[in-house]
Design goal:
By secondary structure, the protein is mostly helical. The protein is built from five helices and no strands. It is elongated, with a radius of gyration of 18 Å.
């Protein structure tokens, strides 16, 4: 999918500035869809990976938060590969993902570690 997006961005760059607005909406919507699906898959993978920590009783919330940050860093690295013209329209998805991860850690792990 990333290869397809890179090809689309390359083509986008070749279009004259005056005509980019005609294709920008289509590319923007496509990028949002792809990025949203990517974030959903990353969150699913994050929850699956973190669920493995339940096996290890000595896991501390600090370790879980470190793991969450590592996952967030991966997502931000992927975000950085997106064409500059389309990043601003994805900020809300990125912020929502960050909130999901942080909330998951706090609700699922911090509350259970204080029991």
């Amino acid at each position: 999918m990333q290869k397809l997006l890179n090809q689309a961005y390359t083509q986008y760059e070749t279009i004259h500035q005056d005509f980019r607005c005609n294709v920008r909406d289509a590319l923007d919507n496509f990028q949002k869809l792809v990025f949203k699906q990517y974030l959903e898959e990353e969150f699913r993978a994050f929850k699956e990976d973190v669920s493995q920590f339940t096996i290890v009783k000595s896991t501390r919330i600090k370790e879980i938060r470190g793991y969450a940050q590592k996952h967030l860093n991966q997502v931000y690295a992927q975000y950085d590969t997106i064409h500059q013209d389309f990043r601003c329209n994805l900020n809300h998805l990125l912020n929502a993902f960050r909130y999901l991860v942080e909330n998951y850690v706090e609700v699922e792990w911090n509350s259970s570690s204080s029991r």
